[in-house]
Amino acid sequence: MSYPHTLSNFYGGQFVASASDRSEPVPNPATGETITRVPLSNRADLDAAVRAAKEAFPAWSGTPVPRRARILFKFQQLLVEHWEELARLVTLENGKSYGEAYGEVQRGIECVEFAAGVPTLMMGSVLPDIATGIESAMYRYPIGVVGGIAPFNFPMMVPSWMFPLAIACGNTFVLKPSERTPLTANRLAELFKEAGLPDGVFNVVHGAHEVVNGLLEHPDVRAISFVGSQPVAEYVYKTAASHGKRVQALGGAKNHTIVLPDADLDLAVKEITNAAFGSAGERCMACSVVVAVGGIGDRLAELLTDRAKRLVIGNGMDDGVFLGPVIRDNHKSRTVGYIEKGVQEGAKLLLDGRESAAAGEAGYFLGPTIFDQVDRDMQIWRDEIFAPVLQIVRVNTLDDAIAWANASEFANGACLFTSNSGAVRQFRETIDAGMLGINVGVPAPMAFFPFSGYKKSFYGDLHANGKDGVEFYTRKKMIVARY
Ligand code: NAD
After folding, report:
1. Which of 193, 289, 291, 460 measures 20 to 30 Å from 257, CA to CA?
2. Same domain as 161, residue 118
3. Where, in this chain's numbering, is NAD(+) bound (predicted)?
């Protein structure tokens, strides 16, 4: 597959070269070789895309909802037909293993499937007799042009949390993909057009801060969906809200997995290994910290280290590879900095990813790293590292474990491994996290339910996906009528 020297933006139904003369290379993280360049688009590019979206809005929002849904069905069909191609694209630009990428495409397709149910989702409600001879009803409408800003770690799934549902609800959309993984978005735009989407309904503008700020400040953009790191989520939330926009901003994470002595340890070790090191730890639902309860710490540490040592590291395109590269060389250096920091802070380094043979290759590889004896005053515990680095802490009781997890500034996900239903109940009621896993390593977001998350992991009110997504992308009118 060959790619243009520099990617184009996509608006008004066609690819358009950016007006900016600034661009940056997009390397394949597994080899370091440049695949293409991504334009760092400017305000003129963004304004043109928003204009296209604004012009398309009256006709699209006025298109009967079942007709909109039919285009979503066709889009779903095309995504299924191009499933393998899309998965290869995700692996190429992100580095995750092909199997992980294939699963990511499935999650994206499910978002389109959910959005295709829009005739039911958009229904209002009516009470025929709210007073004598008086009826009251609620009608649901789209809100206008919506802006989406995406991170690098799920180039297919995260944009799919946003644009299919927003568009199904009758909005038009301008997506700013991550400049580090810009390829998949262009392919999605082509396929959506092939499905029959009218020009201007879905638009893609590549770039970085300038495009983001343009979206946040643009008077014709009504709402912003953001997914990315915590500081940027907070900035996006505050800036877009101060410009009168509806915002949902999903931020970073530091997910804890509690393992009780009555857990199936083999299952826990398999699931935690996948959750900590799958996708090179670059998942907002990655397991970052294992909390071993009641004397199982040594055994758990030994089993996790043994399993991690056996993981196959390499190019995600190759058969049997589990752990691909991290996204960029500077992310690798940042992670190495955290490993050095952990050693300085007194954590016990059980497995050192810097020593993996792959760490010397041209791609941005790091082996799995495991720290034991981590404490709450350590920076490696406080910060999101977002790389294949797992930390183990030890406590005496489930109460202590929950208190430990709840002390984090983040509250995205948390998991519990146990065979005790009472413990499950206590965990569910008292853990401060939005996505909970019981005897699973990754409480994965599903298109049909909201992707929850609290504290510094989420800024806003309505979450992404599910009925929260429908609420976010629609506004309501109420009627009180006497006939
Ligand atoms: P990032 O915050 O660096 O980038 C996200 C988007 O914001 C990109 O499109 C980028 O161009 C833009 N951006 C970055 N810095 C900016 C700035 N200073 N001003 C304006 N725009 C800016 O995030 P990332 O590194 O691409 O993605 C990884 C992060 O995303 C992790 O923290 C991860 O936990 C988080 N994430 C969260 C979820 C979730 O559901 N909560 C899901 C996926 C990823």
Report:
1. 460
2. yes
3. 150, 152, 176, 179-180, 384
